[in-house]
Amino acid sequence: MQSNHEFEYLRGVAEKYGKMYAVDEFNAAAGNISADELQELRDVYEIICSGENRTKIELWVGGSFQRRYKIPKKELDFARRIGQLFVFFDYLVRRGIQPFCDV
Predict the structure, then answer these.
(1) Fewest CB within 10 angstroms: 2, 11, 84, 91, which?
(2) Cβ(87)–Cβ(41) under 8 Å?
(3) For the chain, what percent of residues have pLDDT higher than 90?
């Protein structure tokens, strides 16, 4: 599998939280999130929002979708999960959970 090692640090969190698409899934995850899981998300969020990381990640995710027929399925799945992780951050913002206020 060809992977973008620059974002490998996101893989575990993306696998855990990047598979949700339905509102019910977001509600269940946000309603049952433990303090440790919330801290895990906050730690990753801080890394994503530092420096140019967020822009690089968004460009990579968008580029992966544009090249979806030319890249390995596992790489595309990873990009999708990272994209959904951003959606989950946005959902946490709407739920009023800090510090996910500027995603």
Answers:
(1) 2
(2) no
(3) 64
Domain residue ranges in the chain: 5-94
Is 90 exceeded by the pLDDT of residue 73?
yes
Q: Environment class of residue 40 by beta-carbon count within 10 Å: exposed (0-12), middle (13-18) or buried (19+)? A: middle
Whether 21 contacts 84, CB under 8 Å: yes
Question: pTM, whole model, 2 decimals?
Answer: 0.85
Alpha-carbon distances, residue 74 vs 8, 10, 39, 67, 88 (angstroms): 13, 14, 27, 13, 21
Measure the CA–CA gap between 94 and 1, rounded to whole angstroms.
36
Q: What's the gap between Cα 49 and its chain centre?
A: 12
DSSP single-letter state for residue 23: H
Query: Cα separation of 100 and 103, whole Å?
Result: 6
